[in-house]
Amino acid sequence: IQNGQAQLSLNESLMALPGIFTLNGDNFSQDLRIAVRGFGARSAFGIRGIRLFVDGLPESTPDGQADVDNVDAGALQKLELLRGASAGLYGNASGGVLNMATEEPTARPFVEVQGGGGSFGFQRFQAKTGFKIGKLGVFSTVSQNKTEGYRAQSAMQQTTVNLKMRYALSPTAKLSLLVNYGKSPYAKDAGGLTKEQVAADRRQARVANAQFDAGEAVEQGRVGLVFDKEFSEKHSLKARAYTTMRDFENRLAFKAGGWVAFQRLLSGGGVTYAFNGQKYRSQVGVELNNQRDNRQRFDNDNGKKAALTFDQIEKYSSTGVFWLNEYSPITRLTLTAATRYDRVTVSADDHFLTDGNQSGSQKFNSVNPSLGLVYQLAPSVNFYTNVASNFETPTLNELSANPTNLGGFNSELKPQKSINYELGAKIQAFSRLSLDVALFQIKLQDELVPYQLSSAIGRTFYRNAGRSDRKGVEVAAQVKMTDPKDSNGSGVVLMTNYTYSDFKYTSFTANTIVFDGKRQPAIPQHSFFSALQWVHHSGLYATGQVRTISQVFVDDANAVTDKGYTLVSIRGGYRLKLGQSWVLEPFGGVNNLFNTAYTNNILINAVANRFFEPAADKATYYGGLKIRWQ
């Protein structure tokens, strides 16, 4: 995650995981878009359809929206991706789960600072420290990223602060305090272009985006507590509680209601009890989450806040109860069964009454079971199969995007539901080769799909798409090309993954247009990634990687495509030890080594064919220096 990386975006590391597809790594106003087996591909901004956690606390909002502008890549130690439906454990909008863990406090105190820069005004500064004093462990970071951006109207500045304090209450109990703060005073939005505009000048911003100064400003803080207790080898308990405050402003590229602002308050908690027996394991838990958005819209007077046009309090509350069971009747066979019940209430309290009172509420209930089987053919060869249900309620933002242009919610939107089938194998061979193969099929009902209206260019609305079918194959391999018993720290590792995605609408009609048989936009049918990593005991290290995707459709009608591309990148560094306490680490890299012209982001179903947000069609550079004392 950190070695030789620019650490500007999680996109740098996520592409190495199988089954995941990312877009929009450079538009920090709309944030990184992450898709797992198609879940999340439709998001107009941020992350939808998958759940994000950092150190056990939810980074996703209760209604299912997430972003990573508060996640510092330079503080992360580990990324874990759960592919496929996970509603049986994680509830709403968990078509996949991304768990992120920051570094742990270290017994030996350390201080590390780093500075770096690169193409298009990129600057990054970070300081971090970790130590233990008696029963208390501390890890903390502060960082700032800044870039002018490749395109006009795409500059960004961002500051993040993380604090992890872990106290050992006893040999079997610990309490963690987790604090996160982030502020981005500006993240500009260059907007989408037509193919003709990209060909004429790919660095230009859409005229309206520059006119209305499109972009966002956000400030967010979170405080959470996590309590872990082991009563014995078989019995344990985990509890968490958190609260998050977010202040957000977004300037859209139009006048009427084009300045969006909300003040968001999130809170929640949960308790999980686990039993770990020889043949039977179980987890049972309860989770409560609440969200309150005080949302307003104002006219955007060429980048200045004007008359109020929308004002309402939006609430989302959920209660979830789950039970997971694992039973091994024989040594090589494990059966799993999980179920979760969720009760969700959403409401809108309309405070802008000049156009009438559109206040109202809706309730959703969902039971999501899952069944699975794992057979261990050999200690290092496992085959598995599972079937699971999943659900995804519309977010408050999606509900309040009302095509009637009134307050309240879009009452026609329904939750998206799916049944997921999977068959796969995980193999470890001779400590050198690991292989992961998965075949899946997903049957969806009422898939949530974005669209735009010519009467409200720049706004995204949502509708349900009848029925959809997703079929896919995921293959990942890792090969250690040197002796795995080599203990001097050197080695060569090859990582490769390939994803095949055949995602189609099977029954979908909108405005008398039939989309049956059309492919889901913004997901390539073929995606390939490979990285060759080399580490030498002297401290030298280097990585070369290649990413290839096939063409993608950009609209539901499959009338327009974006061509496929191949990107090649290299990076490396040198850890120079000075005595027993100091380490100097210069590092650097080159992205898009062969000057490939490609698209950074796709605006699905955009009006006037403004589908494309182009990326730099030339090699980009970065470099920096870390200094560490320990």
Task: Provide an overview of this structure.
This protein has 630 residues and is mainly β. The chain is 4% helix and 60% strand. It has 5 helices and 39 strands. The strands form 8 sheets. It has a 22-stranded antiparallel β-barrel. It has a 4-stranded mixed sheet with strand order 5-4-8-7, with no helix packed on it. It has a two-stranded antiparallel sheet with strand order 1-2.
Task: Provide a concise account of the structure shown.
The chain has about 625 residues and is mainly beta.
Shape: globular
Please describe the biggest sheet, giving its number of strands, its sense, and whether it closes into a barrel: 22 strands, antiparallel, barrel
Average pLDDT reading: 93
Class from secondary-structure proportions: mainly beta
The end-to-end distance, rounded to whole angstroms, is 21 Å
Oligomeric composition of the shown chains: single chain
Helix coverage percent:
under 10%
Uncertain runs with pLDDT below 50, 5 residues or more? none
**Could you tell me the strand content as a percent range?**
over 45%
Tally of alpha and pi helices: 5
User: How many DSSP-defined strands?
Assistant: 39
Radius of gyration: 24 Å
Keywords:
4% helix, mainly beta, 22-stranded antiparallel beta barrel, 630 residues, four-stranded mixed beta sheet, 5 helices
